[in-house]
Amino acid sequence: MAAHTDTAAESCHDHATHGYITAKDDYLKRLRRIEGQARGLQRMVEEEKYCIDILTQVSAMTKALQAVAMGLLEDHISHCVVDAAIAGGPEAEAKIKEATDAIARLVRS
Amino acid sequence: MAAHTDTAAESCHDHATHGYITAKDDYLKRLRRIEGQARGLQRMVEEEKYCIDILTQVSAMTKALQAVAMGLLEDHISHCVVDAAIAGGPEAEAKIKEATDAIARLVRS
Amino acid sequence: MAAHTDTAAESCHDHATHGYITAKDDYLKRLRRIEGQARGLQRMVEEEKYCIDILTQVSAMTKALQAVAMGLLEDHISHCVVDAAIAGGPEAEAKIKEATDAIARLVRS
Amino acid sequence: MAAHTDTAAESCHDHATHGYITAKDDYLKRLRRIEGQARGLQRMVEEEKYCIDILTQVSAMTKALQAVAMGLLEDHISHCVVDAAIAGGPEAEAKIKEATDAIARLVRS
After folding, report:
1. Is residue B4, in this structure, part of any structural domain at all?
2. Which keywords annotate this record (chains A, B, C, D) (predicted)?
């Protein structure tokens, strides 16, 4: 985390920023909708709705969350990973390992 | 799902209710925490945090959501499915099919 | 569903057997096809096919495997879990816990 | 990262090949073990083993398969995607899209 100066990591962060600027509002809108789904689930539990209907909503919410993750991952690979790759060196390999570890966590979660 | 009278579905609903009464507060607490995670993700995107850190949070949130689903499913099988099974008939088979369909959606989501 | 002797566990095993008899050939056919997919993947790696095409086959094979799991799970709930539930007692609860643990492993795998 | 001739796609294929050469035997060994797991499952069904034990084996096999997918994906990103990215142009974007689509299929499968 700490104190990068002029590494690929920094250019990564810059680009990630630029990547965000275009899509940030879209991500925020999707995350607000997901927050709404979490509130909707509370309401369903509160009103003791039918379990299967609640589970259907949990599946829909999980799908929405995974779609956000996929978008972020695509942005991340397009910017951070590719920039680190162009810069080359051990940083490049580290970025790719970091990204595939994140993917492995998504596949398992 | 409208107007059951004296079917296994009703006993299911009654039991589901009883099932909820014990654990309802626990589910609500977990869902509020998940709602908080959705807000935390918005803050991370807003502040343009590092992608991989956001993805780690998405994985944690997905896991929390799946744990809620597993709890609900266990309650549902213990009450609705088992009651329908004891009552027997086509209702029993329908309940089991409905539950395994919900599981299949969770496995895929 | 006659002639339980000792425990629900034993009747479970008997019924599971009966459950298998109807669908056993279907499961074996599907598992042989999955075995064939594993051999197909070896051939693709051997011939150095395009990564993405190999990954597509891995996804297809995973889906086929999950479908087998869903079928087995439905059979298991219909027979073992339900029989244990009808017999009642701590065995019933243990069976449900065991089944939901297996589901949790499938959701995560 | 030498000697691209025509397109990034071609260099991708070349590099993928090189990527394979180092790890090919390892992938083949893992896939043979997975094929063995598929045969083991057939034996378990044949001998009518306890459902839950079969499901545990299905989960283990799915995990092994996903681990192969993760390895292939890491190789693919390190070689094809990065090379296409260095070459730049619409090909680069297409490669990233193709990789994230494959990831999305893995997450859902």
Report:
1. no
2. Copper, Cytoplasm, DNA-binding, Metal-binding, Repressor, Transcription, Transcription regulation
Among A31-35, B78-82, D100-104, top mean pLDDT goes to: A31-35
Q: Residue D36 sits in which domain range?
A: 19-108
Q: Chain D partners of A85 at a C-beta cutoff of 8 Å? A: 82, 85-86
CB contact (8 A) between residue D109 and residue B108: yes
Q: Is A96 on the interface with D (CB under 8 A)?
A: yes
Q: Which chains touch C (3 or more CB pairs under 8 A)?
A: A, B, D
What CATH number is associated with residue C95?
Answer: 1.20.58.1000
Nearest CB to A66; choose among B45, B60, B62: B62
Determine, yes or no, domain membership for C92: yes
Note whether D90 and A105 are within 8 A (CB).
no
The whole-angstrom distance between A98's CA and the closest CA on chain B is 8
**Structure confidence by residue, pLDDT tens digits, A6-48:** 344 444 555 445 566 668 999 999 999 999 999 999 999 999 9
pTM (two decimals): 0.83
Residues of chain B with C-beta less than 8 angstroms from the C-beta of D105: none
How far apart, in whole angstroms, are the C-alpha atoms of residue A40 and residue A29?
16
Number of separate domains in chain A: 1
- Under 8 Å CB pairs connecting chains B and C tally to 59
The reply to whether B1 falls in a domain is: no
- Give the N- to C-terminal CA distance of chain C in Å, as an integer: 34
- Global ipTM: 0.83
**End-to-end alpha carbon distance in chain D:** 33
Q: How far apart are CA D82 and CA A51, in angstroms?
A: 46
Mean pLDDT of C47-60: 94
Length of chain B as a residue count: 109
Q: Residue A89 gets which letter from DSSP?
A: S
